[in-house]
Design brief:
This protein has 256 residues and is of the alpha/beta class. It has two domains: 32 residues; 195 residues, Hexapeptide repeat proteins (UDP N-Acetylglucosamine Acyltransferase, domain 1). It has one helix and 25 strands.
Length: 256
């Protein structure tokens, strides 16, 4: 007969090892809390707001405005204006000129208006004129520039040809979705909506929605007629209804 095998007794983790594991877990938790608290404090201290040394480098920096830390690339601040009560997210690039120290003359090159919000990771890169009106909001990772590479000489690499400038203006009250690219020469009217991921160039009127690559008008607000095509799921305003349909509104019934 085969010899009977007795089961091995369960092995116990030595006390020293258990204490070491417990110590590591406690230390990791404490270190995690310390890192997060330190990072929150660093972000608060590193934020640029009116009156801080970093804000004084700008041509003007309005009260109530802030640029979150960590910032993106920043240079040419003496040609950049930031309005009042504007919030600029973290890792946003704000620059004027080709390189730091580039003399751009006497005027303002980049202006961000009052009560604006610029999403994190966005770039506002000016060389001649980038004007962002009041109450403009953007999603994250928006790119706005007034300069592009020239490729007119087919014999030269595009990267070494002198770039061309064309001013950019974004009308007050507009909204730019995530990932929008605004190319040189763009002029957006007031309260324009730009769909996420669009590449915009050209002139667009007030109160329109643009989308696509290249961006085109997909909806407009027409005086006396409202939005064309109509907004889905939004009831028409009385001013947008034909006269014969106004009697259907509550309180307008002419039934005797």
């Amino acid at each position: 007969m085969f010899p009977r095998c007795e089961p091995s007794p369960p092995t116990r983790t030595p006390l020293r090892r258990r204490l070491a594991d417990l110590t590591r877990r406690v230390a990791r938790r404490l270190l995690s809390r310390l890192v997060h608290r330190a990072w929150a404090e660093l972000r608060a201290v590193g934020m640029i707001s009116a009156g801080t040394p970093a804000a004084r480098r700008f041509r003007s920096f309005g009260s109530g405005s802030s640029i979150a830390f960590p910032t993106g690339t920043m240079f040419g601040q003496e040609w950049i204006e930031v309005g009042s009560d504007t919030v600029i997210g973290e890792r946003v690039t704000l620059s004027a000129g080709l390189v730091p120290g580039h003399d751009l003359g006497a005027g303002t090159v980049v202006r961000v208006g009052d009560r604006c919000a610029v999403g994190r990771g966005s770039h506002v890169v000016g060389h001649q004129s980038v004007q962002i009106g009041d109450d403009v909001f953007t999603g994250p990772y928006v790119y706005i520039t007034d300069q592009n590479h020239d490729y007119s000489d087919p014999e030269l690499p595009v990267g070494v040809q002198w770039p061309r400038n064309d001013p950019v203006s974004i009308g007050a009250g507009s909204w730019l979705g995530a990932g929008v690219i605004v190319l040189p020469g763009t002029r957006l009217g007031r309260n324009v909506v730009v769909a996420a991921g669009s590449v915009v160039r050209g002139e667009f009127p007030d109160h329109c929605v643009v989308a696509g690559v290249p961006a085109r008008i997909v909806r407009r607000h027409m005086p006396g007629r409202g939005w064309e095509p109509p907004l889905r799921g939004v009831p028409a305003l009385p001013s947008e209804l034909p006269a014969e349909d106004e009697d259907l509104l509550p309180g307008n019934s002419q039934a005797g």
